[in-house]
Amino acid sequence: MGNFVACCAWVYDDGEMKSTIEILIAALLAYIAYQNYKINGANFKIQKDKFRLDLFNRRHDVFKALQALITNIMRHGVPTREALNEFAVQTSDAEFLFGEDVKNYLEEVSTKSLKAIHLTERLGRSSQGSGENVSGIADELYELETWLGQQYKNSRKLFRKYLHFSISKDF
Question: Which end of the chain is more exposed for a tag (fewer CB within 10 A), N or C?
Fold first, then answer.
């Protein structure tokens, strides 16, 4: 232990050796600071990609809800009320996740789906002798069913720009 104290005393007595140690400590601290900078940069990229993944997942959930409604329409001809209600619940956040184009599109799908349900109910009442124009209701319902049936393909085109996802290339 005496040698260690003597060595330290020698280092502090010699001014040149003292400044060399200060330079080494400063260099070590600079190296540690640089490593922290690199780690923080990597963490930022990870957080950015996590945010993008979370946004993608929330948007994809809205898209899946739309696809489920369209599948229900293809299965039954018109949507069921339950399917339309489920669609409304699952797409309620769409205005915060997408642009106006998707928001308006989802509203149009919802409105036309509800109209198809009402026309189907009216057609059922008309066939029981309510006196309504069955041919006119059937034609309007056919147009709605055709439009709704085409939305499986059309929705993919609209949502594609919002559902594009790739990991940052810098990382």
Answer: N
Phi, psi of 169 (to 5 degrees): -80, -20
Residue pLDDT, tens place only, 31-63: 998 888 888 888 888 888 899 899 999 999 999
Angle between helices 15-76 and 134-160 (to 10 degrees): 160
Please provide the DSSP assignment of 84-108 as one string.
HHHHHHHTTTHHHHS-HHHHHHHHH
Give the tokens for residue 66: 């739309």
Q: What is the pTM of this model?
A: 0.71
Q: 73 is written with which tokens?
A: 């329409």
119: buried, middle or exposed (CB in 10 Å: 19+, 13-18, 0-12)? buried
Distant-in-sequence, close-in-space partners of 18: CB < 8 Å, separation ≥ 6: 11, 12
CA atoms within 13 A on the CB side of 167: 3
Residues 6+ apart with CB under 8 A from 135: none
Q: 26 φ, ψ to 5°?
A: -65, -40
H runs (alpha helix) in 77-167: 81-90, 94-97, 100-126, 134-160
